[in-house]
């Protein structure tokens, strides 16, 4: 899951980014509204978190502009103001959810999870492909009951593949949803990640789940 965070306050932005990264989300931060708009146009984010009070513009305007540009990612607005009128304006501008600062990080994360699920129309926090199971709440991964320890990046990669099980996933799709702006060495390390992930999930199993599709990408499929 790749998230765009549009927040001008550097401390708050880095706090949120750190918290989300610990939960295995991939996060890009824009400190200006204009930068956020640009990033949202060039990357297909799974969620956009948008602060209402921005120095160069207003989050509500950005929200409207994102919708006008047909960007359909869920938008989660953050604001310091707690008035019903502001909430209504935010939702009318095309936001999916709204949270007032200061907020509990636990509640914030629960809403992020709900919005990401909404994006792929799924209920619950578990993903299942054959006997491979991933719990998005606890980050526990197991195959046929055997617990598998994954690094944050391996987890993010597997989660993306499981969300697109039985579809061919291209390297570009993975680069766009699992890696972020800071990660420029994608081509060099990518195959290493896939190799490691494959050896962890398919090791000792009768049927491999992760397949390479030559010249195209990868396919995670049941049997
Ligand atoms: Ca702000």
Show the helix and strand layout.
Blueprint (H helix, E strand, L loop, with lengths): L1 E5 L3 H13 L3 E5 L2 H10 L4 E5 L7 H10 L6 E5 L4 H9 L4 E4 L4 H15 L6 E4 L2 E4 L5 E3 L2 E3 L3 H12 L4 E3 H7 L8 H17 L7 E4 L3 E4 L3
Parallel strand pairs: 1-2, 1-3, 3-4, 4-5
Antiparallel strand pairs: 6-7, 7-8, 8-9, 10-12, 11-12
Helix pairs in contact: 2-3, 6-8
The structure holds calcium ion.
Calcium ion binds next to loops.
What's the number of helices?
A: 8
Q: What fraction, in percent, of the residue positions are helical? A: 40-55%
Q: Can you identify the CATH class of the largest domain?
A: Alpha Beta
The string of secondary-structure elements, in order, is EHEHEHEHEHEEEEHEHHEE
Task: Characterise the protein shown here.
With 223 residues, the chain is of the alpha/beta class. The chain has two domains: 2-120, Response regulator (Rossmann fold); 126-220, Arc Repressor Mutant, subunit A (Orthogonal Bundle). It has helices at residues 10-22, 33-42, 59-68, 84-92, 105-119, 152-163, 171-177, 186-202; strands spanning 2-6, 26-30, 47-51, 75-79, 97-100, 126-129, 132-135, 141-143, 146-148, 168-170, 210-213, 217-220. Strands 2-1-3-4-5 form a five-stranded parallel beta sheet, sandwiched between helices. The protein has a four-stranded antiparallel beta sheet with strand order 6-7-8-9, with helices on one face. Helix 2 (33-42) packs parallel to helix 3. It is elongated, with a radius of gyration of 18 Å. Residues 8-9, 51, 53-54 line the site of calcium ion.
